[in-house]
Amino acid sequence: MAVHYSEKKDLFPLAGGCACGLIRYQLTRGPVLVHCCYCTACQRQTGSVLGLNAIIESSDLTQLPPAKPAVAGATSPIPAGLVPAFATSTGAVSAAHDEPNPEPTRICVPTESGLGQTIVHCPVCYTGLWNYYVDAGSQFAYVRVGTLDRPWEIDPDVHIYTRSRKAFLTINDGKPQFEEYYPSRKALLREDALERVQALKPAIDKWKGDLRAALSN
């Protein structure tokens, strides 16, 4: 059986970033939970068949300086590059940057709930890096595992919205599966993760109260 990410003592801090290297970040410790989501919203937003999201406190998601572009490699990132002539020939602009202190862009997109979801992405190459959902606002970030430098180190803890899972995908890791969202997060959390979630409950409750007040105006 694969070693759980929470037991990989030398794994964190774990870095990640966008395709062009402008926005770099790191997880200073392991996620509280990792979703493998097959909902059609994740499929649309990622252009793939699922979304793999690592849930972590926003305070443990820190930004790093820009770096040269690279893709994930077996042992270390593999350098990446582009030829400006190719960009021009396809009607594109080069994802070049020289901003020493860049800020990611946040955009809120419509959701089935009607409240929205905020996606944080690179302002140059537009890679989606992490999301904020209505369950916790900006207290918890849902980091897109595929943007990590070593994405293979993080496996899901739970599979959700399997009702829209593509037929050619087989789930055989023994993790809990739900056709929609799970009924209780508490039942899925490790003991240490539960303590971390409970520590932020007052801040989340306040945020939800402020949101309800804003919605009622």
TrEMBL record:
InterPro entries: CENP-V/GFA, Mss4-like_sf
Keywords: Lyase, Metal-binding, Zinc
UniProt domain CENP-V/GFA: residue ranges: 15-63
GO molecular function: carbon-sulfur lyase activity; metal ion binding
UniProt similarity note: Belongs to the Gfa family.
Protein name: CENP-V/GFA domain-containing protein
Originating organism: Neonectria ditissima
